[in-house]
Amino acid sequence: MCGIIGYTGHRPAVPVIMDGLRRLEYRGYDSAGLAFVEGRCLRVLRAEGKLAALDACLQGQECSLALFGIGHTRWATHGLPVVRNAHPHQDASGRFALVHNGIIENYAELKAELQAQGVSFVSDTDTEVLVQLLAREVTASGDVRQGIAAALSRVEGAYAFAFIDRESPGVVWAGRQASPLVLGVGVGEHFVASDIPAFLPFTRDVVFLDDGDVVEMRPDAWTVFDARTLAPRDKTVARISWDVQAAQKGGFKHFMLKEILEQPRVVRDAVAGRLRGSRVVLPELEGLARPERLVVVACGTSWHAGLWGRYLLESMAGIPTQVEVASEFRYGGFVVRPSDTVLVISQSGETADTLAALRMARQAGATVLGICNVVGSSIAREAQRVLYTQAGPEISVASTKAMTSQMLVLLLLALHWGEERLTVSQRETILHGLLALPEIVEASLPGLRHEAQKRARVYAAARGCFYLGRGPMYPLALEGALKLKEISYIHAEGYAAGEMKHGPIALVDPEFPTVAVCLRDELLPKMRSNLQEVAARGGRILAITNPGVEIPAADTWTVPEVPAPLGAFMVLPALQLFAYEVAVYLGCDVDQPRNLAKSVTVE
Ligand code: M6R
Q1: Distance 102 CA to ligand 1 centre (A)
Q2: pTM higher than 0.90, yes or no?
Q3: Does the annotation count 526 as an active-site position?
Q4: What is the CATH number assigned to the segment(s) 255-586?
Q5: What is the CATH number of domain 3-246?
Q6: For range 397-425, the mean pLDDT
């Protein structure tokens, strides 16, 4: 949930670390800090709030001689987001400084043990326990590697850490267990970070670290060894093809806007190379039988994509499909059989609950498939097969283009597994529609944005908002509500429209508008009736619909009509732009909404 970075090389370390932290800030921005060694002096600088505060702290500081160091941007788990809890943390002697992402689950027990030995603590964090434990073990064994092994053998939970030692010039150690960490291999310099963009301006050569790996890096060498046995581990260097530009704003005010507007390209890329005439070809699934039963597991927006996919997987492919929130699946005691296929969906590929669900499914003997965006992420590596969504880096905390890309992969899966059930003409209608989609979306985006801007002024004063849909539009209603609440802080709830009268309708009044997704489909008459019930109680209605569809008493917002089930790809950008423009109108921090982080690597 936090971002960590380590550097050793020939450049001044502080600017390299600050630059990396800027690209990791999406992972958390409660506080930031860095540590480096100059001469024999270990210096730690920390600041509460966003990275700009740390930048301000650095003004006037002379630190150009430091050639190695570590940095951190925090999303608080243990302890308030204040300076004393900001990373890096140090041991009592001030010899070591450590940054950490994750949670040390047995920290209270370890802390009590250390306190009983006379160690005093200055923060409320689990991280300080880790650095104090490490210091104790290194001092006891007289060797840093031995000390790491001894300390990590005591630690339970999830972590990625990096640390430096005042007594070991030029060396950075880092390791991972269930939290992301990547090594960047340069010439005369090495990097370690939670995510590749942190060091992408300097190198494209990376090593994906695995659980239980510890890396020791110096300017001219790196070694990965097993955290418990200290045996060397073989690693392969991979080359990253995307560049920094792809991970940056490209002139847009916010990453979220840039990412929404990238969706035509996302549609093209998700489909590219996967169609042969009227067939969908997915080489990733070669040798796998069509699933008897599917269990889809994901969180947040990815879960909404899964809920949408269910309608297609059942109706087109005829596969019984269950969709679960990963955090419930983990502890729900649900039945997973070896004959089941479990499909995990995650943009980041690092979401802790989804990763844990994947591991449970593998343990149960099920076939595990992943739909992932981040290449080389934990979920991508641990799933038996992975279908990449090819959406490109998604930086904004609010997920947008990733959902489109996940829905596209789900649609391709439904067409692939449904090949025998669907007629050629049914498949052709969808595939032709799919090929035409990027242009239609592209052409409609400026108009959608304009409509969203107009409406933002009207609806931004709402006390709360309902989002309604039926059938495959119900998950979109859930997603519309999630987008609005996470970036504008307006309370919003998505409901299956038929559920309204079972309680929620009690909230309807003129200050509590309803956004209804009601395209021209077989459920439209039902939607109309539900909306009449809302209108009859004084509720204002914003209806996202197709040209020519009449929704009485509604503010209608039309999106181009495309063949089912592709209408979702027209509705989704409208919902995203609506939330975006409301948040901008209200002056909210769109890309970094409060209390959130992009990659949720804690339970
Ligand atoms: O990386 P993942 O797709 O696994 O992330 C899942 C959720 O954390 C994510 O979709 C979250 O709900 C977003 N903030 C939604 O915009």
Answers
A1: 17
A2: no
A3: no
A4: 3.40.50.10490
A5: 3.60.20.10
A6: 97
